[in-house]
What we know:
The protein is α/β, with parallel strands linked by helices. The chain has helices at 3-13, 42-55, 87-101, 103-107, 125-140, 150-156, 184-197, 241-247, 310-323, 372-385, 399-402, and strands at 35-38, 60-63, 79-80, 118-122, 146-149, 172-176, 180-181, 201-203, 208-214, 217-223, 226-229, 233-235, 255-264, 274-277, 282-286, 292-298, 332-342, 349-352, 358-362. The longest helix is centred in the first third of the chain and has 16 residues, at 125-140.
Amino acid sequence: MSRYSIFSLARNAISHHENWQRAWRSPTPKKRYDAIIVGGGGHGLASAYYMAKEHGLRNIAVLEKGWIGGGNTGRNTTIVRSNYLWDEAAQLYEKSMKLWEGLSQDLNYNVMFSQRGVYNLGHTLQDMRDIQRRVNANRLNGVDGEVVDAVELSKRIPHLNCSPDSRYPVLGASFQPRGGTARHDAVAWGFARAADALGVDIIQNCEVTGFRRENGEIQGVETSQGYIESPKVGVVTAGSSSVLADLAGLRLPIESHPLQAFVSEPIKPVLDTVVMSNAVHGYISQSDKGDLVVGAGIDSYNGYGQRGSFTTIEHTMAAIMELFPIFSRVRMNRQWGGIVDTCPDACPIISKTDIKGLYFNCGWGTGGFKATPGSGWVLAHTMANDQAHQLNAAFSLDRFISGALIDEHGAAGVAH
């Protein structure tokens, strides 16, 4: 290390971060923008970034009622995969996967994307038939996948309980080698910094309290910092989407539920992949810090609380001990919850609305984080051109009228 580097490190160490360059600006809102994104999570920031980068729109604002990364982006278990069953979903998530694979370089920010692979376990003959079907469908869509039997699985994951005497014996699994995990906070920070560098105004502590429209067209938004005019408004607010829709006079076919997650005390590396099970309803991975990151399904009741019920904690812990008895004495450090909005077909809404210039990106349920870059990419196209991209055309609001639903409950059934 050079002498200059040593002195620079020492100077910054004793400055208490006072002299550090800010990752993004904190501007005062302008009176007018060409486009506004409501929601400063990963999807919203990605939408603004790709609008600026791919479509040349620079007079854009991202309005966040709290702080960047304070919502669901920082409250998930960071799993990334694209092995969905139906063509429409698989192609959208695969677009996202390809963006993930170059995201750190594109943003010039390490999002810590680790392609450690994702296993979806099968416990019954029907599970294995479904796994075969999904892997074959994935391959037809250019998505990587393989079927792994129980013998091979026990070799790859030695601590997994593959005993035939277990309550739900493991018969095999699907495996997506390109799946894995990413650092959720880094994703938000990376997109925020990159969007800011392209001129996007990121405005925190700015809650949208209403919409102005005239003759069926959006005019702008009322906020806690005053009225802001814009002919294009994209609402990307995860679990609060129905609340914002109500402010605009719309009713969406979604429900909001708490989704819980847990992390353990740090332990030495024992699990180098992601393991999921629909049957026992739990999934687990190990972070780079050594924490076991654990989750399951949503709480059954509707609500907007960022917490959850004790029964779900009990159920999840039982599921993980069923799969990994070795973890039975590991202590859990903390628990938290996020808010997910779910559609009847377990697929998102990325759509124009009947109000010209108003767009919604919501209903991702438990699959939102993995879709972050792809979701932003297609919404940016839709807002810039006022027309859906072919990748999100099937995810319009109209499908709930036409009946052309995309039922992904099988592929999205265990949260991530």
